[in-house]
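Re-running the complex after MR caught last week's input typo. The corrected sequence lines follow. Everything else is unchanged.
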Amino acid sequence: MKQDRMNPFLREGRSMLLAYDQGLEHGPSSDFDERNVDPSFVMDVAVKGGFNGVVFQKGVAERFYTGRVPLIVKVNGKTNIVKGEPISRQNCSVEYAISLGAKAVGYTIYIGSTFEAEMLAEFGRIQEEAHEKGIAAIAWVYPRGAAVQNDTSREIVSYAARTALELGADAAKVKYTGDRESFAWAVKSAAGVRVFMSGGPKAPNDEAFLRQVKGAMEAGATGLAVGRNVWQHSEPLRMAEYLRRIIFDGAQVESLVQGLTV
Ligand code: FBP
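Corrected-run output:
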């Protein structure tokens, strides 16, 4: 059987990744508080919460990665200060990511942007280098820009998932469409590329978020790459436990409802 480069991040074929690159993408004042502004806090949540991978930019990885959970280094990124058509360029080599301990590199492609060609080409080079060096290349595929009306429609999310397949990614991180049936089409469109649901902004309550995760898993997702819904939670380890039970044990949201914020 073909080697699955995502193996370091899988448990029984499923996975729960903790994303913490929002300091660059959104800035500290938008997403962080006194507690989660400290990368050590999030590294600790990744370990104690039983995550199968943690996502850092290289600077955070250099200073705060402890080696206790497999590492994904995001090799591009941008701030949200510049407005207009989005572009995110490479800021870390694959080789350097590996020297920090990465078992995968992550790269965001804004499909629909007038600059998408640059990101498609850059990811193509990064994917080849990652595979030559034996690690996975994970594509965050986010439809964005003036041409994109609705970034969670069935049509656009399945296009995002398919883009990851066409470009040779080992996994695709895409937004949830809002229902199981349409997300299942996105998973099918990825034709074997592992699909991760992206967490998104903190949901109004636990139940709403867990229902999205359940829907994505039932649609055939490999798992979840989540940030804010965990480390902005008042009890991140409790949220991590709920997520583990849904992703790995197939728990129903109803069975977890006692103790949830609804
Ligand atoms: P969240 O679960 O916090 O949404 O994190 C997932 C993620 O893809 C991060 O890796 C990234 O920083 C962020 O979302 C991008 O957010 P946006 O959609 O606002 O650009």
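None of the earlier attempt is carried over here. Residues 19, 21-22, 25, 55, 140, 142, 198-200, 225-229 surround 1,6-di-O-phosphono-beta-D-fructofuranose (CB under 6 Å). The chain has a mean pLDDT of 96.
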